[in-house]
Amino acid sequence: MLTDIEIAQRARPQRIAALAAEKLGIPEEALEPYGHYKAKVSLDYLNALPERPGSKLILVTALSPTPAGEGKTTTTVGLGDALSRIGKKALICLREPSLGPVFGMKGGAAGGGYAQVIPMEDINLHFTGDFSAIALANNLLAAMLDNHIHQGNTLNIDVRRIQWKRVVDMNDRALRNIVIGLGGHANGFPRQDGFDIVVASEVMAIFCLATSLSDLKERLANIIVGYTTDRKPVRARDLNAHGAMTVLLKDAIKPNLVQTLEHTPAFVHGGPFANIAHGCNSVIATRNALKLADYVVTEAGFGADLGAEKFLDIKCRKAGLRPDAVVVVATLRALKYHGGADLKELSQENLDALAKGVVNLERHVHNLRERFGLPCVVAINHFTFDTDAEIRLLQEKMAPHGVPVVVSKHWAEGSKGAENLARAVVETVERAQANFRFLYDDNLSLWEKMRTIATQIYGAADITADESVRRQLRKWEEEGFGHLPVCVAKTQYSFSTDPKKLGAPSGHIVNIREVRLSAGAGFVVMVCGDIMTMPGLPKVPSAEKIDVDENGVVSGLF
Asked: Per residue in 191-205, pLDDT tens?
């Protein structure tokens, strides 16, 4: 059996200029090529495009993640290819992968099997340099902050209340907590600090929510880096850093155009953390994709309780997007795991565990249909050891919910294996009118927004927090931030804040441990449980298997 990278390396991609012209009508002069098979698209060209009447936005999400895997990106790619196969003008929008997971243990973000975006090695390794630009912008702000303090601190910044960290796009636990400024007066003031991974930076969240270069600059200016000794916020604009930060990002903000194995065009652009931020590709990519294609297929990070909720309540709210349907990806393996089956035995038929685990999928579908008013299709990401009895059982369990349940074999067969899924999505969009609505109103208090998410999406009984947390939320409301949406940071593995509570737990209490204001991105982060913003490498990192030969051919990359 061929590996993902071997399949990708055997592909015969079209030159990106030819694909852009043929599939999307983009002229060559609107492209900025990065080699033969990837390019950035001019913002001037995209901004001049008219809106496309009737274009459809399809969100791909999933049940709560498990170690068995769900295949959300693979399904997104397979669905996009299948829509093209049945004659629809389709365009895929994905996030860029972080080098941390690539060299760690999660893997890349280019799909898999015969449902991949290519050039796979480039996308997973550096790509067009967007993440490097974001890291540089983030770290320029950190350097200017420390330099201001060293040069006299005219803003009276309290070094004990600095919020801004440096970032690096690599899993490195040794950088989580460090001391900087050692070595005497010439090296600044010693203080405790730390690094986050690039995808956790607020610059990344801003990058993916900005609608233009000027909007990007304004959002960067609003970043709060710390507080003065009298607890007044200090912003990037106070350090005069936002102009130079925008310069570093002026090329990165242009969306990246690539293709699938079957030559369906794809924008791969941006990639914020899905548990500390909103976990979606850039607004610029998604909005402009809707100008270029009849069907745009995009994904949101993790399960529907985190990724889809944030896509809908944060990204759609800020960008004016309205999805037409949602595909919820499930595997029989993952459902059996949610039903209590042992990880080592998931390849064996187990109807009892499957019947118990279906509750996780049922709640996600219920939330999307009843809370957000969106029609759904369930995609069973097929494995060769899935049995007919298990598939029938899942279809029977989901029948009362009135959603199609479609077996999709895109990993093994490409677009041919996802053709039934594509037809089900088109039929759903044409038959079921989306009545999309946000989960909560802007005018609710921050506390009530969080309570709404916890009780209506997570099945919780209530939320709790220390008085210091509640006092901070009230203070932010007094300062004019009460209208912002809420971004919940919690475990992705459960509806609760306990990753061991699988299935569909209910009646639990969600405790808000900490709150953070992302003033530039435009949301308030509610930290529930322990959330890692700088992961570490596993005992045997994926990097140990990655190599390159004398001809420059990469191996071991999945």
From this structure: 999 999 999 999 999
Residue 477 exposed, middle or buried by CB count within 10 Å (0-12, 13-18, 19+): middle
Active site residue 274: yes
**Catalytic residue list contains 165:** no
Asked about 95 being catalytic, the answer comes back as yes
Of 23, 40, 56, 95, which is the active-site residue?
95
Of the listed 11, 228, 383, 416, which one is catalytic? 383
Pick the catalytic residue from 85, 88, 106, 501. 106
1 compared with 319, residue with greater pLDDT: 319
356 in active site: no
411 is catalytic: yes
CB 268 within 8 A of CB 89: no
Active-site residue flag, 106: yes
Lookup: tokens for 297? 């297929």
**What is the pTM for the complete model shown?**
0.95
Give the Cα separation of 408 and 403 in Å (integer). Answer: 15
Q: What angle do CA 505, 524, 278 make, to 5 degrees?
A: 65
Tens-place pLDDT, residues 470-493: 999 999 999 999 999 999 999 999
* Annotation says 18 is catalytic: no
Question: Which one of 302, 495, 523, 558 is the catalytic residue?
Answer: 302
**How does pLDDT run across 40-68, given as a tens digit for each residue?**
999 999 999 999 999 999 999 999 999 87
